[in-house]
Amino acid sequence: MRWASPFRIALLALLWVLAPAAQSHESRPAYLEIRETAPGVFATLWRTPVLAGMRLPVTLKLPATLVPRGEPIVQQLNDSLIERRVVEGAVGLDGQRIDFVGLQGTITDVLVRVQRLDGTQQTSIVRSSQPWFEVVPQTDAWSVARAYTVLGIEHILLGIDHLLFVLALVIVCSTTRQLVFTVSAFTVAHSITLGLATLGFIHVPQRPVEAVIALSIVFVAAEIIHARRGVPGITARAPWLVAFLFGLLHGLGFAGALAEVGLPQTNIPVALLFFNVGVEIGQLIFVGLVLALWAMLRRLSVPWPRWTALIAPYAIGSLAMFWVVERVATF
Length: 331
Fold this sequence. Notes:
Layout: H1 6-17, E1 30-38, E2 41-51, E3 54-55, E4 59-61, E5 67-76, E6 80-88, E7 97-101, E8 110-115, E9 121-126, E10 132-134, H2 141-158, H3 160-172, H4 176-198, H5 206-228, H6 234-237, H7 239-261, H8 268-297, H9 311-328
């Protein structure tokens, strides 16, 4: 089974490279953490994404029963704005509703985590279709699993750089068997480094990792071009090996995204496992869509010039090189 149809490659390149989400990881979720430090006293952390200098137009509205202690502490980062404050209320949080004003006008989700004094936690994802969150008395591991699975799916499907790398692997593979081994190697590799980095066994600065991830896409795109010109490299001969080695880097990128929202201290294994499960589900959805599109296009008999086979790798490599320059410039 051949995967190198010029018509298929051209359309896939246009579909994914010219998509509205041309910047990688633009749609990062907002994050709210409420931690009970004493009976009726809560420390809050509210983080909203910043894109091109513009803060996400969402306002946090806590229950009226909670009274702030002093002024909030605001910290401006490159990609987000963090606001910390302490609030207190005699009736506590159970049964109270937290609103996110303006969320309905965005495509961003909010990850909410509430940690009580007794160690119990509640984790949930708030969507724009229902821009509010209700605190319930207790939570369980299932709610954490569900929230982090959704978070993993959204991260991979909104991570255009990771998807372009997977797309390049699909183009490289010439048989179904080779594709299965290659994608499996990528999965195993990023699962290893995701776990090690999240649990604190390895520490790598995130900005260099993101730059090298983009460079890995450039490398595979260049390898595709060389193979099309009759000079196959290591990627064409052993795509599973390249997928595994670069998958270790991509796992560090996933760990960075997970670190942004944090892990519930009483359910770290569950959150880590199901975030990874969500990433794999999202990856399989993407590969399935690519193969489905290829299956439809192969039924069309359109004579395309040979040079069209280079459209996809050049488009993928050019966009990835832009990311390399952009990310190196932020060191």
